[in-house]
Predict the structure.
Amino acid sequence: MARGGRKYPLLVYKRMLGRWWTAVFAIGLVLVLYVGLLWGAEWYFLNASQNPLPHLDQTGGLVLLVVGILAMGFGLFLLTIRNFAYLQMHDNHLRLVTPFLRLNISYKRIHHLASAEMSALFPPKKLSSWRREMLGPLLGRTANVVHLSQYPIARFWLPLFLSPFFFFDKTPHFVFLVEDWMRFSSELDSARVSGKIPVVKAKPKLTPSLLNDLNKHMK
């Protein structure tokens, strides 16, 4: 299988999962600390009448502990997969990868490319409060809009696996928000016209010999 080009992380997923993992992990941590505090107080105050905190029975405590540990684990899972959403160009298609979907978009389906600010595609006044808060600093960024002749799969299935911020109207398209939108647009346009993946030059490693050469030139 031929290797693809460079990977472009999808900023919407990094933002979403980055917010979710902290909230989920914090909830789990609070539950674990809560159980530890109540059981620690019961151990410290041998006389129950002196314990200012409520009593927590063993069954209830174990349930809260399990829920808390699972929440912390799920939070760490979200932290891990937030970088698993990216775009990658191949010889004859653009690959869209998210934690829950892997989709190949043939270059032949791409009608044209455009760019627009996220705030123009998703006007803040028309967004619900939680969506507006979720996008936050991303609203001022420029996104790539890839207009298609047809979706690779039925439109019905896409919202089940992709964020609503991938679509701004009912026409066949995807809204892609990446770090370097100009480079992505240029490479995608080149790849779909020529059928060749743009070559990414590797950065030279600073070996001792290379550092010596640089020092000589600088003297």
Remarks:
- The chain is about 45% helix and 15% strand.
